[in-house]
From TrEMBL:
Domain NADH:ubiquinone oxidoreductase 30kDa subunit: 13-126
Transmembrane domains' residue ranges: none
Organism the protein comes from: Hallella faecis
Stated name of the protein: NADH-quinone oxidoreductase subunit C
Listed InterPro entries: NADH_Q_OxRdtase_suD, NADH_quin_OxRdtase_su_C/D-like, NADH_UbQ_OxRdtase_30kDa_su, NDH1_su_D/H, Ni-dep_hyd_lsu, NiFe-Hase_large
Topology of this chain in the membrane: Peripheral membrane protein
One Pfam family cited in the UniProt record for this chain: Complex1_30kDa
Subcellular location: Cell inner membrane
One GO MF term: NADH dehydrogenase (quinone) (non-electrogenic) activity
Domain of life where this protein originates: Bacteria
Subunit structure: NDH-1 is composed of 13 different subunits. Subunits NuoB, CD, E, F, and G constitute the peripheral sector of the complex.
Primary location: membrane
Family: In the C-terminal section; belongs to the complex I 49 kDa subunit family.
Domain NADH-quinone oxidoreductase subunit D span(s) in chain numbering: 279-448, 450-524
Length: 524
């Protein structure tokens, strides 16, 4: 969608944002985009909101107030819970302090990192940015910033830990954190009191690097985010560029993209089901999933040339046409796959130990899922109809018959079962399309140097774990002025504390297994 930003002004911003949620039901905060808008406007944020009843989306722009060398914006921490980590991300990269946010610390960068990387005047030369080789300094304190009646910026210190708190570090290399995530967990015996997520162990500065690259060069980054959703991520990026340029795609391109997206979704769900079992020590179920995933990767590899990194979509269509055997092999895989899913339930899903470990664990109701921005299967397990393919159709999802799978359990067991049922839906979508791929161009030729008209756009797709979106601000050049990716997993990390407070240490492992996040996507 092309953004048409609403502006309330600094003094009215917080009150008007509260009205949008309480009076107009814009209860889902999709993302917050921090941006250096240039010397005339300075620093600020764009907030993208959705009404979960009508699925209408709007965008709000708020410029930061400059106080000497400091920049401030009122925090919406107490309006949308998902803004916790989203505002900390903006602070980390742009240095905007959010007034009233109780935990204004860096999120991805080290605590002793100097500078604000996404500001346009940030010096990226290696001589100016040599990371210290010592351990990162830790503090038991965090900061809250507010303005006095006289307009003076004041800091209030808050303690993160009490003197008698016992703190356990899960990660950054514990296998059940699925990568380099560190969860600083305060416990009382076996009971979890609080969880502080520490991110950035695999942060690579993709959004900053994209600002100095041409649009075709930016595509390679998407495949290296959530490597199980490479098709989905690249689909979002090429779609936002194509929408901005007004590119009309052929039906053949749209059909093939839809099929590839669903094959990628099955790929993602198979690894999720396998690692969920492995985290609970059920190795056999993991091997079953990996066995069937190999058949799927064989089908995709014939056309894309890749198994993990799928660099197949490009601006204007596809890298190449489908392999001559693609239709036949895809149908053979779908016919093979359908009865196999029951095996996962026989071996693991319906096991009494699985039910004991997952039922009632990591519970998060519908209202909290919306408030914390927990999208995808995790949110649908609580009954939230959040599937982007239904609410904001793209490709040919509005031309096929399929069901959005939701549940009511709102716990780890329900999340597992949503993934199981979604595999069947993906197979249904593929089988409806595979024999009906129309003739036509697989690529709409573009100019050698792609330039996007001036404007701001946001496009999202339904990734394997939830909504993945891309915000694009173009100034009419061959490179994006600002390109921001909405990762699927960041809001999941922000919801861990809410999900697990009062539960047991073992429940953290089980909940982490049922939340489908991949850290390179989260860290970018």
């Amino acid at each position: 969608m092309k953004l048409s930003n609403i502006e309330f002004g600094f003094d009215n911003f917080l009150a008007e944002m509260k009205k949008l949620k309480t009076e107009k039901h814009f209860d889902y905060l999709v993302t917050i985009v921090g941006e250096d808008f240039g010397p005339e406007e300075g620093l600020g944020c764009i907030y993208i909101l959705e009404n979960t009843q009508t699925h209408e989306r709007i965008s709000v722009k708020q410029l930061a107030k400059q106080l000497g060398d400091e920049y401030v914006i009122p925090s919406i921490y107490h309006v949308w819970a998902s803004s916790d980590l989203l505002e900390r991300e903006v602070y980390d990269f742009l240095g905007i302090k959010f007034l009233g946010h109780p935990d204004m610390r860096r999120l991805f960068m080290r605590n002793d990192f100097e500078g604000w990387p996404l500001r346009k005047d940030f010096d990226m030369s290696p001589e100016k940015n040599q990371f210290p080789m010592t351990d990162e300094p830790e503090s038991d304190w965090t900061s809250e910033w507010n303005l006095t009646k006289d307009g003076e910026l004041v800091e209030t210190k808050h303690r993160l830990f009490d003197d008698d708190d016992f703190v356990i570090n899960f990660g950054p290399n514990h296998p059940s954190t699925h990568g380099v995530l560190r969860l600083q967990t305060v416990v009382d015996g076996e009971t979890i009191k609080h969880i502080y997520p520490h991110l950035g162990y695999i942060h690579r500065g993709m959004e900053k690097m994209m600002e100095s690259m041409t649009y075709p060069q930016t595509l390679a980054f998407t495949d290296r985010l959530n490597y199980l959703c490479a098709m989905h991520h690249r689909h979002a990026l090429v779609s936002v560029i194509e929408e901005a340029m007004g590119v009309e795609l052929s039906e053949r391109i749209q059909y093939i993209r839809t099929i590839m997206d669903e094959l990628q979704r099955i790929d993602n769900h198979l690894l999720f089901l396998g690692t969920c079992a492995q985290d609970l020590s059920a190795l056999t179920a993991f091997l079953y999933c990996m066995r069937d995933r190999e058949h799927l990767l064989n089908v995709m590899e014939e056309t894309t040339g890749g198994r993990l990194i799928q660099n197949y979509y490009r601006i204007g269509g596809l890298q190449d046409d489908i392999d001559p055997n693609f239709v036949q092999n895809t149908k053979a895989f779908c016919n093979y796959m359908r009865p196999m899913v029951q095996e996962y339930l026989d071996v693991f899903g319906d096991n009494v130990i699985t039910h004991k470990r997952l039922e009632g664990v990591g519970y998060m109701n519908l209202e909290d899922c919306v408030n914390y921005g927990v999208t995808g299967p995790a949110g649908r397990a609580a009954g939230w109809h959040n599937d982007v393919r239904k609410n904001h159709p793209y490709a040919v999802y509005d031309k096929v018959d399929w069901k959005e799978i939701t549940g009511t359990g709102a716990d780890s067991m329900e999340r597992y079962m949503i993934h199981i049922k979604e595999i069947y839906q993906s197979l249904d979508i593929i089988m409806q399309l595979i024999d009906n791929i129309p003739e036509g161009e697989f690529y709409i030729k573009q100019k050698p140097i792609i330039k996007v008209p001036e404007g701001q756009w946001y496009t999202s797709v339904e990734g394997g774990a939830g909504e993945f979106g891309v915000y694009l601000d173009s100034r009419g050049d061959k490179s994006p002025y600002r390109l921001k990716m909405r990762p699927m997993g960041l809001t999941f990390a922000g919801a861990f504390d809410k999900m697990l407070r009062g539960q047991k240490v073992a429940d953290l492992i089980a909940t982490g297994a049922s939340i489908d996040f991949v850290i390179p996507d989260l860290d970018r």
